[in-house]
Hints:
Number of strands: 24
Amino acid sequence: MHTxxxxxxxxxxxxxxxxxxxxxxxxxSVDSRSVKDGxxxxxxxxxxxxxAEFIQxxxxxxxxxxxxxxxxxxxxADVLADSGVPLVxxxxxxxxxxxxxxxxxxxxxxIIVAVTGTxxxxxxxxxxRQLWTEMGAEAVNLGTTxxxxxxxxxxxxxxPEPITLHRMLARLADEGITHAAMEASSHGxxxxxxxxxxxxxxxxxxxxxxxxxYHETFEEYFQAKAGLFGRVLAEDATAVINIDxxxxxxxxGVAEDRGQDVLTIGRDSEAILRILGQRFDATGQExxxxxxxxxxxVRLGLIGGFQAENALVAAGLCIAxxxxxxxxxxxxxxxxxxxxxxxxAARRENGATVFVDYAHTPEALVTALxxxxxxxxxxxxxVFGAGGDRDKTKRPLMGRAAADYADIAIVTDDNPxxxxxxxxxxxxxxxARRGVGExxxxxxxxxxxxxxxxALGAGDTLLIAGKGHETGQIxxxxxxxxxxxxxxxxxxxxLDGKGV
Length: 500
């Protein structure tokens, strides 16, 4: 068991106070309500309010020191002057907190990798963990689905804030976990949450429109992702890049400029780990690829052509961190799909199949529909919607994507949150009606799934898109129990007279 000191000085945390000498800190907090006697309270700039507004409460809770930026120091100037609490002013307090948390908790698993991209992060992180496990390592993946593998725990965010993240990494190290694969979200990268993590390798999957409610421009979104290679990943580490994506070569350039080794994946003739061909069937695919001049062929029990890219990116991460290539490739047959990612949900008596996928962007929906099509003999039906309080510009694009790439598109509610669900559906339908497929609207998601399942004939396939692994539907401030896989199973059982 790794033991950590109960206190550390500011200098041991890489910090210097403006108005005091070196003081001892008893813990770290970003929430003033969790401050205890002697804690370092980190008052960070937020999207709605600056954390410095809460310094007064942290002082009352006997905080040992305050970390903030210049703006925060001005906001709380009077409180700080009266209290005399040591003040650390950082140009980038989020970055300072990330390294501070790493120094406070100290321990991390021996090998950590991170994967970024609009789509595929969860699958790649899970596949890397599965490959390591198959090869005998104590491994986990961390992200959207929590911590999975040799140790399990829930996580509130895809990329947790640094205190939560480093507390978890230290716990994993204490539990004997040697390998960890992390998802690196654009929010997490922009907010410097990963900056203190010692990464052995990092991967890029793809980039398409998403999170433009947070990032002001697409270029800003790209730069947030590029920060994984341009800032977080060390110069002597390896970048694993999918160069089939239109931004792949540009991201590889960021890694090369940093001096990192670049392991490229894809069908591109320049790819180091190159996909040569795929053959699809009802339950998976054969994938043929080249590595080091040698041809390999593996059976993947994964639906969707893009899953071969995800599997090989994961294999690339394993190879980049010391795994034997031949052993890695031999382990790929054991890969299982991530919950909510092209997940088989149910089969009707007539043989029609139902799958659930997390696709919630236009590009992801196109990718999912195009990928599932080779597995379908009959019609392809899709049930989908768009989330409220998120990027509105993608709604008509999602509608058009569904109508163009499915034979039948049923628009329903996703997570409307605080918005009027009918308005969201109307914006999605506006795009869908410009497409070529048959389009209808069913507001209630359970009813939409039931109607779609009822429409399935022999050889048809239904894709329920948008929520994937989620087990709740967010309506207003309430989270109502809802599981797409469960609803599909209930619908099939009811319609085929099997009971539930």
